[in-house]
Structure formats: structure tokens, C-alpha cells
Amino acid sequence: MKKSALLLATVIMSASILPAHAKGDRPAPPSFEELDINGDGELSKDELKGPLLDGFDKFDTDGNGTLSKSELPERPKHKR
């Protein structure tokens, strides 16, 4: 009986978690303006993290050490 109750509780908890992941619900990526902490219209390495920081040198096509809006890769589509 206890095993059945534990199994049922596990299934219910799993079912409540899975739909969010199955749909791919994620928050929208931050906008350029949100990333541009100092408001200078350019993104420096200090203002970035994750994939943008990892690919910084590839994205910095003019080699000036900052990223402009035109140098950023296209943002992933946000599913609602």
C-alpha cells in the first residue's frame, strides 16, 4: 500500500513538471537594451554571459572589442 501511494505521488509530481518542459516554456532572452548595462549602445564582455560571451570574438566582426546591435546573432523565437 505504501509503495502504491509513493508511486502515485511520484507520477502526479512528474506530470505537473513535464508539461512546462515539453512545451519548451522558457523566459524570453533579454533585449539588447537590457544587456547594455551602461547604456552606451555597445555590449562589452563585462556585460555578457553565456552563449554571447562564449562567441564574442566570432560576433565582433569589426574587431573593436564591443558588440553593436547589428553584430548580434538573430534572437531565438520565443514560444508562448
TrEMBL record:
Q: Which InterPro entries match?
A: EF-hand-dom_pair, EF_Hand_1_Ca_BS, EF_hand_dom
Which PROSITE patterns does the record cross-reference, listed alphabetically? EF_HAND_1, EF_HAND_2
Alphabetical list of SUPFAM superfamilies matching this protein: EF-hand (SSF47473)
Chain spans, region Disordered: 21-80
Residue span, EF-hand domain? 32-58
Q: Name one Pfam family in it.
A: EF-hand_5
- Does the entry feature the keyword Signal, yes or no? yes
Signal sequence region: 1-22
Renumbered to this chain, the Basic and acidic residues biased-composition regions fall at 42-61, 71-80
Name of this protein: EF-hand domain-containing protein
